[in-house]
Amino acid sequence: MVIRPYTELHQPGIEFGLTYFDDPGVNIPSAITAWVAMSGLPDFLIRMRQASKNYQNYKSANNVEGIERSQ
């Protein structure tokens, strides 16, 4: 994973790159892998970004102190 600022460290905005490989041990149809690469994963990242932007408001509205570790 590579994370770097768009400009300077004290200014908002980052760019990141993530490389991942997993061998599931089975043959996955190319239509599935194409869908994940072109639609599924980008949609997931967009939703995660939006959720992280809204997290402070969510915590305030629901009296959440933070994320707690499960035992």
List keywords for this structure.
extended, two-stranded antiparallel sheet, 45% helix, alpha+beta, 1 helix, 71 residues
SSE blueprint and pairings:
Elements: E1 2-5, E2 14-17, H1 30-61
Antiparallel strand pairs: 1-2
Task: Provide an overview of this structure.
InterPro entries: START-like_dom_sf. This protein is of the alpha+beta class. It has one domain (2-69). The protein is 45% helix and 11% strand. The radius of gyration is 17 Å and the shape is extended. The two termini are 28 Å apart. The mean pLDDT is 82.
Mean pLDDT: 82
3D shape: extended
Largest sheet entry: 2 strands, antiparallel
Number of E strands: 2
Order of strands in the sheet with most strands: 1-2
Radius of gyration: 17 Å
**Whole-number count of domains:** 1
Please provide the ordered H/E string of secondary-structure elements.
Answer: EEH
Helix content, binned percent: 40-55%
Work out the helix count: 1
Structural class determined from secondary elements: alpha+beta
Cα separation of the termini: 28 Å
Instruction: Give start-end ranges of low-pLDDT stretches.
Output: none
Strand portion: 5-15%
